């Protein structure tokens, strides 16, 4: 049955966000927090994008499954996403792995994280469930995908990126027929299948799935009893539906939200230090590929009550300036020069310091005469006077983590070890 034009399917849907992973490729950035809780864009956290997409799409029932070092994530959700009201039939539940099935069992996989909370999802009384990853940067209207799911009578609809074939080897890739039905699902294939009519492009999975809840519930119950299953959507459930059911591909370009400034659909997995740094620095472009200033599709987050940013000193060589940069509230640029950088909340940059293409997480203190370029600085770090980073690769590798792309990650423990060695 096709939906009526004036009926928003999102009102009958819930978003289930998988946010339990560490994201080990982000190295020390996830030593204290899960990947979805990592800061992004000067003000937000990565998970805010999936949650904001759901909220802006009209979804008012959400659940977040957490597991690895979830305190930072849970605290952020409690502070920034506490406006859901049960009396309006709105819910946002945090679902930590809590041995709900067996005392010895945590979440064994992405599908198991949903299966262990079947009773909670049942209490929502929803018709559709959207499974989302909590660790990607993008803007998307899930209502469009929901409507396509219903109109095609699919068992599952999978959000897909259009990527060049040579890059698709890093993704789970869909082979589809002319109608968009998925005929095969291949995990990181050496020879990715091309899209019909476009031999240079492939369809890669975004890890976004839409199900009818009744269908998904039965599928999860069967999977829980399968001793040979890894209890994962990508490894187990999706291939089974592709083989024996009806799986449809939904092109991200059909539901990507743009403000008019973006020239192409924007989606990023910021799962490595290089990718994280690049996606942040890209926001400093004159016309960035992702428009965070789109008031019609806001990225909701925790709105801290802090004073405005402040720039002081106006002397030659000691002028508080920020050029082509994003500077959050409670920052003080005191006689420092900041270029093509992001300063998150509460950063202090002191006289004669220079920053170039630096991603500086909250409450970092940068002492005088420091020179920092092409780097990521973790929260709460105290940069010592005169520290130089980004100019001598050998020196950087001696004390800090230097990525394949030459980006230097700095944490307080690294600086402490350096200080001890130099004493």
Automatic annotation (TrEMBL):
Residues 15-284 form the Nucleotidyl transferase domain. Signal peptide: none annotated. One of its GO terms (biological process) is glycogen biosynthetic process. Residues 307-410 form the Glucose-1-phosphate adenylyltransferase/Bifunctional protein GlmU-like C-terminal hexapeptide domain. It comes from the Bacteria. Its EC number is 2.7.7.27. GO terms for molecular function: ATP binding; glucose-1-phosphate adenylyltransferase activity. Pathway: Glycan biosynthesis; glycogen biosynthesis. The keyword Nucleotidyltransferase applies. Alpha-D-glucose 1-phosphate binds at residues 107, 172, 187-188, 205. It catalyses: alpha-D-glucose 1-phosphate + ATP + H(+) = ADP-alpha-D-glucose + diphosphate. Keywords: ATP-binding, Carbohydrate metabolism, Glycogen biosynthesis, Glycogen metabolism, Nucleotide-binding, Nucleotidyltransferase, Transferase. Gene3D superfamilies: Hexapeptide repeat proteins (2.160.10.10), Spore Coat Polysaccharide Biosynthesis Protein SpsA, Chain A (3.90.550.10). CDD domains: ADP_Glucose_PP, LbH_G1P_AT_C. The record marks 67, 106 as: Could play a key role in the communication between the regulatory and the substrate sites. Homotetramer. Belongs to the bacterial/plant glucose-1-phosphate adenylyltransferase family. Involved in the biosynthesis of ADP-glucose, a building block required for the elongation reactions to produce glycogen. Catalyzes the reaction between ATP and alpha-D-glucose 1-phosphate (G1P) to produce pyrophosphate and ADP-Glc. This is Glucose-1-phosphate adenylyltransferase. The gene is glgC.
